[in-house]
Structures are given as C-alpha cells and as structure tokens.
Design goal:
Signal recognition particle alu RNA binding heterodimer, srp9/1; Rossmann fold; six-stranded mixed β-sheet; 11% strand; binds adenosine-5'-diphosphate; binds magnesium ion; binds zinc ion
Length: 641
C-alpha cells in the first residue's frame, strides 16, 4: 500500500497518469464469501467452549453430598480423582424407590476439600486412582488453540471488511478496497418524481441525466459536461435522495460512498480507496460516483496538524488527482453532497472539478405541499386532511422532517386503531416533532401549572399586541419532550427571508413575555424562562455583532460563525472577533436591548392585565388553546391603549 501512496505526488504533476495502467489489469471477479470458513470457525469455537466447560468428561453430574451418600451406601464401584473432580461408576442391584437415577450409571462431581475421602474410599473397597487433569487439554486450551484461532479470525475479519470482493494480491487484508456499493440492477428505484419541492435543482441535474443517457450526442457537438456536481443544502433536504434519483433516471450504475468511509485509522488507506473507486467507476462507465458528506475528506487542508489531518490530506489530494485524471466525457459523473460548503477546500471547487453546484434549500410553502403529496402516496388519508394547512404550519421543515411527520401521523393513527390518517393525527405529529412527545405522566404541582399557564399566556399576549410578531397558532401547557413544560407556537403568515429591526425587537419582546408575565402576576421569577433568555440573548447578540444594528460596534462585523451557514437562527454559535473594549461595549448593549425588550413586554402585559389573567385561567382549565379560542379571549378586553 505504501508504494501506491508515494506515487500520489508524481501523478499529480502530469495529472493524466492512470494508476490502473501501471499495475496492469487484474481479473476482478467477485469472489463469493467462503461459507466453509465460517463453519470451520464456528466449529472450532464450539469445541473450545465445550473443552472449557465440560472438559470432555462423561457422566451424570451429581453433588458431592450425593457422592458421599452413594459411597456410604457402598454403591460406588470405581472412582478417578483429579485435583478438581471425581468421576467414576455407581452400581447397585436395584435403585432404591426414592432415587430416580438408574441402578448403574457413570457419575461425576466437583471435588471439595475432604481429608477423610481416601480413607472412606479404601474402607468401602472402591477401585480408585488419581489422575492428572488432561495435561494435553490444558496445553491446547491455553496456548495452541488461540494461536490457531487468531490468524483464522484475522482472515475472517479482513474478508468481511472489504465487502466489495476479494482483496488484490498486493494487500492480503484488502483495506485499500473501496467500499463503494455497486447497485447491481443498475436501478436505484428512485426517480425525479420521488423528489419534490426542488424544481430548479432537478432542472440542473436533468442535463446530467441527458448526458448519461446519450453521451454521443454531446460529444458530437463538442460539448463538455461538468465532471463534478456538488449538492449543497441543509440536512434532510434530499441531497442523497436526489443523487439516487439522477442514477435512477439515467438508469446507470450508482457507486455510493460516504466521505467518512475514506477516513480510516491507517494513513494511506483513504487515498487507496479513492483510487480504487475511480478505477472501478471507469470500467463501469457510464456511471455515477456519489460521495456523500464530502466534507469529511474535503475540508480545507493545512488548518490543523496531526495524523488524522495527514490522512485526510492525502485522501483529498488523491481525490483531486483522480478528478483531473479522467476525461470530461469519459462517462463517469461525480456527484457529491455536503451541508458544510464553507469548510470545503477551495481546490475542490475550482473549474474542472466540482464546477457545478446545485443548492437545495429548505422547501417553501409550495415545495412542502409537493413533498407532503409525495409521501402521502400510499397512505390512506381521511377526507378532512388539508395538506395545504399542514404545509403552512411547517415553516422551516426540510423534506426529511415532512416525511417523518407523515410517518408519525400514520403511527398515531394506528395507535388509535383508525383506518386512515386524519388531520388531528397530522397536527399532533407536527407538534411532537417540534416540541417533543407529550408527557402526560409528568405531573406538575398546581402552583407550577399555574405558573406555566401565566408564562405561556405572557408570550402569547405580547405576540398578539406586537405589530410585527407572527400570529399565535397554539398555546399548550401539556409537558412535552425533555424540557418544555408548555409552549406557545407562532406561525408566520407567509414565507419570510428577511427580518427587519422592528421584527427582531418584537421577537425579543415576545420571548421575554413569559418572564414578564411571571413577575407581573406572581411577583417572582422562575427557572422556566432559561430557554427564552438564551434565544433572546442570541438575537440581541446577532443584532449587534452581525446585522450592524447596534451602536457598540456600528456596522463592524465582530463575530465569526462557527457552524454551517445553513444553521441560521437563534441557536447559531458565534465566535468573538473584536477587541476587548468592543466586546465589553457589545455586552453592555446586548444587555440594554434585553432590558428594553423586557420593559416593553411588561408594559404591554401591564396594560392588558385582565386579558392575561383570563387567558391564563382558561389555559389552566383547558390545557391548550388554538388561535381562535385565544383571540376571542383577548378580544373581549378593551383594546390596549
Ligand atoms: P440529505 O441527504 O439532504 O440529508 P436525504 O436525501 O437523506 O437528505 O433525505 C432524507 C429523506 O427525506 C429522504 O429519504 C426522503 O424520504 C425525504 N426527503 C427529503 N427531501 C425530500 C424531497 N425534496 N422530496 C421528497 N422527499 C424528501
Ligand atoms: Mg444525505
Ligand atoms: Zn417561555
């Protein structure tokens, strides 16, 4: 394997060497896994266990006390005594009626320390002798057997590791073999019809499909098809699915391997895998090579030091070599997927490599509707189901979440022994995904429940009275998931891609509305607001550090994102990128923003005190309120000044 790695550098200089040529062709027949090997191993292990446990001796196991009883009765005819066991023959004219054992049988017993044994045996006239415990067996057991088993086991492990077939002659254990799986029937069973809500991405990939179907047409026109297409998008948006769909549409073989499978313990294995993968692919062209989660190997080089990085660098280098090494129209199309395009090495993205990028975003309303329709196929839906309403109530859900929601709904329907999925099942499933499963068994004390009701009513009421906040969709004080004791669910009226300063202010006020209500009504704060505070602080900090909405840093961006650019939102982690003084000023300003938001929430609730109490009381009684119930409760009150 080592000489292969060393070749990496010179291959890169000319960029066209085909490593396959140097090594010559070798027959690549699929060697069936040897079933005999397994059987033999199994037998050896069994024998080993048998030797250990039974030590191969025969006879009925009796207790030492029983042995002494037989001895006293004069029934023991012969005995072999080793350091740990006694075995021998028991023989009587007839077995006494209270003894279930036959008149004559071989016995064995565990020996206990008994000084009088020999005397007794002699007295009873037993033919007895001492034996040394199977010395050969002990030797075998301790030394020879493990020595025999170990290489067998190693061989076995090595075989099962390289699932794609027998190892090449050069590497007996085949660590270098790629674990790419060739879909035998050349059909992934997925088509574009199974992927919904990303029409642009599908249109982009249609060209790739056309090329794979009829490469000559493109070649005749002198057109070059991109070698590599990178699918970008947050988790669960269907990147893997789309790659499979391309293979399914074009009806070509599909090699799929995950980036992490290249990164191994041994330096050089990853590079060898890359080489093998491309070698196989070139032989099978036209075909698709799909590297999922490519960020595992494609991370920028030279950032960290250490062995792991070394290995990844080598693998990445080899990947770059291979990318340059095959002809644009060789019929091999490389697809890769990642949700961390920010960490990818720039070299991967330059023209001639992954030069085409297809972005998959979280689906919009129409997209969600389409995805729901795809996954609802084959599931009996009750007539009351309104998929549009479901799509509307799931902003930010990716395809995988929607698929999950439909599946949860089906499970809920089966739990209540229904014959079809109804709207309530779907809504419950979504709540479960958003806030965790209901926990009816978690019993809160009465004053705790009241506090939760007041807290949630506070959120809802501030939202109701804030011009830019999303309308309240649902309030609940049924404990859910790990932490939530209650929750207020707001839903945007329409898809939103930008937020204004006023909207962010309102959002902070709504988040702090829970704490404000608790203080106002119950005169004391509680730990229940921890999550709200975290999110509000996150918003305030982003406003100052990223969005240029504060005075402390002005327009200066003074934080770096640590996470993927796809993970926008309050949970995003930031890293400070400014001087100490600025940081101090930022902290002060973040605090001021939060204070102002709390003050506003308190003011709103103070002037709607009756409505707050009314909503809280009703919530306490009914446990959950939907939008209409909530708004009718609020509207009774005189409008806020
Ligand atoms: P990713 O690779 O982007 O993380 P996957 O492709 O593995 O996501 O998606 C997981 C599952 O979610 C898919 O198997 C599919 O059932 C569902 N899914 C995701 N996106 C879509 C979509 N656009 N249309 C239909 N189903 C989708
Ligand atoms: Mg995936
Ligand atoms: Zn809260």
């Amino acid at each position: 394997m080592n000489d292969r790695n060393r070749r990496t550098s010179d291959e890169r200089s000319d960029g066209t060497t085909n490593p396959g040529e140097k090594r010559g062709e070798r027959p690549r027949t699929e060697r069936p896994r040897n079933p005999w090997l397994r059987l033999v191993l199994f037998a050896v292990v069994l024998w080993f266990l048998w030797m250990m446990l039974g030590q191969g001796t025969r006879g009925t196991e009796i207790t030492y006390a029983e042995f002494r009883a037989y001895l006293a009765a004069g029934a023991v005819k012969s005995a072999s005594i080793s350091s740990g066991r006694i075995s021998g023959l028991i023989e009587r004219e007839v077995a006494p009626p209270d003894d279930a054992r036959p008149a004559k049988f071989e016995f064995q017993a565990v020996r206990v320390d008994d000084k009088a044994l020999v005397e007794e045996l002699a007295k009873a006239n037993v033919d007895f002798r001492g034996v040394v415990e199977n010395p050969l067996g002990g030797l075998l057991l301790l030394w020879i057997l493990p020595l025999l088993i170990l290489p067998l086991l190693l061989l076995f492990l090595a075989r099962s590791r390289c699932g794609a077939g027998g190892g090449p002659m050069g590497s007996p254990f085949g660590f270098g073999r790629s674990r790419a799986r060739l879909v035998a029937d050349r059909n992934t069973g997925v088509t574009f019809a199974d992927v919904a809500g990303c029409e642009e991405a599908k249109a982009d990939l249609q060209e790739v499909v056309e090329f794979l179907k009829s490469a000559e047409r493109f070649v005749k026109l002198g057109a070059k098809i991109p070698k590599g297409v990178l699918l970008l998008g947050p988790p669960g948006t269907g990147k893997t699915l789309l790659a499979r769909a391309v293979a399914g549409e074009a009806a070509v073989p599909f090699f799929s391997i995950s980036g992490s499978e290249f990164v191994e313990m041994f330096v050089g294995v990853g590079a060898a895998r890359v080489r093998d993968l491309f070698e196989q692919a070139k032989k099978t062209a036209p075909c698709i090579v799909f590297i999922d989660e490519i960020d595992a190997i494609g991370r920028s080089r030279g950032v960290q030091i250490g062995a792991v990085n070394d290995e990844r660098e080598q693998t990445l280098n080899q990947l770059l070599v291979e990318l340059d090494g095959f002809e644009p129209n060789s019929g091999v199309i490389l697809l890769a997927a990642t949700n961390r395009p920010d960490v990818l090495d720039r070299a991967l993205l330059r023209p001639g490599r992954f030069d085409r990028q297809v972005v998959l975003d979280a689906p919009d309303l129409e997209g969600r509707k389409a995805i729901l329709a795809v996954h609802a196929k084959g599931k009996p839906l009750a007539p009351d189901v309104d998929l549009t309403a479901i799509a509307r109530s799931t902003p930010g859900f990716a395809g995988a979440d929607l698929a999950n929601a439909l599946n949860e709904a089906a499970l809920l329907a089966s739990r209540r022994a229904g014959t079809s999925i109804n709207q309530h099942d779907l809504e419950e499933a979504i709540e479960k995904i958003v806030a965790g499963p209901e926990r009816q068994t978690r019993r809160l004390k009465d004053d705790e429940r009241r506090r939760v009701a007041v807290h949630e009513s506070g959120h809802a009421l501030v939202a109701y009275h804030s011009e830019h906040a999303d309308p309240v969709h649902k309030i609940s004080i049924v404990p859910r998931g790990r932490a939530a004791l209650g929750y207020t669910m707001q839903l945007p009226v329409e898809e939103q891609y930008l937020m204004t300063r006023a909207e962010l202010d309102d959002r902070m006020a709504v988040l702090l509305g829970g704490r404000a209500a608790e203080q106002l009504v119950l005169g004391d704060a509680s730990t229940g607001a921890a999550d709200d505070l975290e999110r509000a602080t996150g918003i305030a900090r982003q406003m100052v550090c990223i969005f240029g909405m504060g005075d402390a840093a002005g327009l200066m961006r003074c934080a770096r994102d640590v996470d993927s650019p796809f993970l926008k939102g309050p949970g995003v982690r930031l890293e400070r990128d400014c001087s100490e003084e600025t940081a101090r000023a930022i902290d002060a300003e973040v605090r001021a923003l939060l204070d102002a938001a709390l003050a506003r929430a308190t003011r709103v609730l103070g002037s709607n005190r009756e409505a707050l109490e009314r909503v809280a009381a009703t919530l306490l009684e009914r446990e959950r309120l939907d939008r209409e119930e909530f708004e009718s409760l609020v509207r009774v009150a005189p409008p806020a000044p």
